[in-house]
Write a structure and sequence with these properties.
The complex is a heterodimer of chains A (177) and B (316).
Chain A lengths: L1 H57 L3 H11 L4 H12 L6 H11 L5 H13 L5 H48 L1
Chain B lengths: L1 H6 L7 H9 L2 H4 L4 E4 L6 E3 L4 E4 L5 E2 L10 H11 L8 H6 L1 E3 L5 E11 L2 E14 L12 H4 L9 E5 L5 H14 L8 E5 L7 E2 L2 E2 L7 E5 L3 H11 L4 E4 L5 H12 L3 E7 L3 H5 L2 H8 L5 E6 L6 E7 L6
Parallel strand pairs in B: 8-14, 8-15, 9-12, 9-13, 13-14
Antiparallel strand pairs in B: 1-2, 1-7, 2-3, 3-4, 5-6, 6-7, 10-11, 15-16
Helix pairs in contact in B: 8-9, 9-11
The chains are: A mainly alpha (177), B alpha/beta (316).
Chain lengths: 177, 316
Amino acid sequence: MGQKRFLLAMLKLIGAICIFVACAFAGWHQASSLEKRRRFLQGAHQGLLALMREIDYSASPMQQALSVSAEMAGSAGQLFQQTAERLAAGDGCTAGEAWQETLDQAADLQPEDRMLLSLAAEGLGTSDATNQLKSLELLRLRLEKAEADAAAEVAKTGKIWKTMGWGCGAVLVLLLL
Amino acid sequence: MADLAYKQILTYLPADLREMLRRADQEQLAQLEELRLKPLTPPLCRFSNNEAFLAWDGSLVAHPQDGQALSISELHKTVMLLSDSSFYAIEEELRRGYITLPGGHRAGLCGRAVLSHGEIKNLKEISAINIRIARPVNGLAAPLLPYLLDPSGRLYHTLIVSEPRGGKTTLLRDLIRTISDGDNTIPMRVGIVDERSELAAMRGGIPQLPIGIRSDVLDGCPKAEGINMLLRSMGPEVIVCDEIGREEDAAAIMEAVNGGVRMLCSAHGASKEDLLSRPVLSELLQQKAFDRIVLLSRREGPGTVEWVKNGSFLPC
């Protein structure tokens, strides 16, 4: 009889731990997806800055400029690298088309970020250095703002998600016990 | 090899045009010399002795209305592909009016010139593209060599003359390769002032056409400055210039001739009278700057040698 009670208590304890961990994980996951988005936007911003430097100072061909930028773009590096690889394939696509194709295939992008980055596809490599830099600067400013907004969201909502996660877990455990 | 030459430009063409060319008679396309593109007109293929428009099914037709017109967006896309999607990186090429492609092929461009301080700064609103297929012809210079080498085996100061598309650049290039590699001659150090990037077709520092192992190239450099730079820095035995004709060219050529360096040049012209009617060339000829003059024509195809004469226009 005592052993049965003990087993029941153990099961409840394990269940409570599972519920608590699951809720805390859900909260942490939400918070980390916000942080991941912030890092992606920061990477895209850095990559764009590198691309502008390559165009301005080296006048590097787009494929080479994108490859160099990929190294500076952190978690957005794949976007630049895959675009460069598409261009290198030489199957008749322009830099804008290659950029858009890469964006279309990036599954985990927020719709607003996808829309923002697709602005680059319109004029990538199509104008002289002065106009190219002007249009990329406009995009850079918008990316900078998006990055700042994302950082603010991480600071504000990220903590709430984490606290809510383990808080809800604790409340559920108490209610069920 | 000829077939391969034309296929090298396919990656620079939009998908539909590429497909039309793939459907076309490949044996005929192997002889393609120029592909001319304009918006709202069908692509024009120029061969050595004839030309034809390209139709949707790949057939080559005589009348433009039977061909497949190129759209404005396709022309713009071609420009983008020719620039490797790096319009900002080809400002110098646009200023000169052409882009050198891998393999030495060349895309000439027409459009609206953007001026700055009275000089062409850029081209915009591109309205026509002419892609010229480069085909090095090895061995073209061999029959001429006995006329162009002096008894000690060194090259005479030589001027090659022909009208446009007469084959003078092709002959000049093969002569460079021959004397630079020492192909049936004494090997010579050759300095090339390639102002129009036509002789070596440099791309990223690599010559796209065969110019021999002992050749040094000053790419995109004005001829007069280039000759002096080569004289000072590279110790050439032969200096090569394509399409001479400006006053400053003549002074630099005389400087090199008097300095003991052999000159190998080309110029536009279809006859002795053409040469003598051009003040700069006439002065150079009067000063006996050249020991050998070679006149080419297209009579039996590009590069037909009409005559080889000495500096006094006497047969040799």
